[in-house]
Amino acid sequence: MYSVRRGNNYQLFAILFFLLGSNSLGLIIQGFGLEIPFLGLTAISQLGLVFLPVLLYVLYTRVPLRPTFQLYRLDIVNLLLSLGIAVLVMPALSLVNILSQFLVKNYIAESLMEMQDLSLGTSILFIGVFPGIFEELSARSIILSNYRGKPVRTTCLVSGLFFGILHLNLNQFSYAVLMGILLALVVHLTGSIFSAMAIHFTINASMLVYQRLIFDVMDGMGADLGTLVPAGGVDNYSLLTAAGALLLVNLLTFPLLLLVLRLMALYNGKAGLLKANAPTGAFLPQVPGEPAMPEMEEESIWTPQFFFMIFLFLLYVVLFEILLPRFMTYG
């Protein structure tokens, strides 16, 4: 029912679908001179380009929904621990984001600027709720279910890598990989995809609330909101200052993050999760018709589909983040 090859096939299909879909949409918009608002593009991206491959996967494979997507109840203790993890990991993700900006531009900041005229509730729905649900089903649930016979470390790393690649730029890739690894680990600990959804939503929603507070303060002072994202990008001195401040914050929050993860492991009786050389399936609810303790699969994750997915991402980044900007600058 589940296999590494099927999981890798899905990852390649999802990336190809996203690449072809987003670029085709861009050509249609440009060719017909259409003006689609930011929320419309976000809805198309989440519902059409992220969730549709998930739906097609279900229709094609006819897998049982509950064990495939880890749709199991999340109790109040695990929910509270998940929210704590979300708060404590944000400084680490912000630090990685800042460090990546020494090399590439900040894509998420530009997106936030396009949302300044939207209501906070609408922004949270499209940037918090939709990704929190659809991206988790794609980048976490399907990979975990198909990597049931692989070690936990391998499953978490592949889930994080795919989650980073799905964003199709180096800036978001840098911290999405780390976030994806953490979310996969949390699903192993709780046995429920709702824990990852809660963390994902909280991180995105908190970012939106923080951005709105900054906008309101600057607007009240009569400041130009455009100064938040300078046309030439943030200078290296400002980045270095921000990185230094975040590093100090992380000295406090990162040990607390590890402590909360430890508490979650103890609460769920999975204290030996990373120490034990056991497969992912041993830490997730049992699939009907399969053994309670799945055997470790010998099948390699390094399939042609897996390599091709990575190749596509690198090619896309080189073309659109390195070569094309330089061509446009000197052209």
TrEMBL record:
InterPro entries: Rce1/LyrA-like_dom. One of its GO terms (biological process) is CAAX-box protein maturation. One of its GO terms (molecular function) is metallopeptidase activity. Residues 123-205 form the CAAX prenyl protease 2/Lysostaphin resistance protein A-like domain. Keywords: Hydrolase, Membrane, Metalloprotease, Protease, Transmembrane, Transmembrane helix. It comes from the Bacteria. The chain crosses the membrane at residues 12-32, 38-60, 72-98, 118-139, 176-201, 237-261, 306-328. This is CPBP family intramembrane metalloprotease.
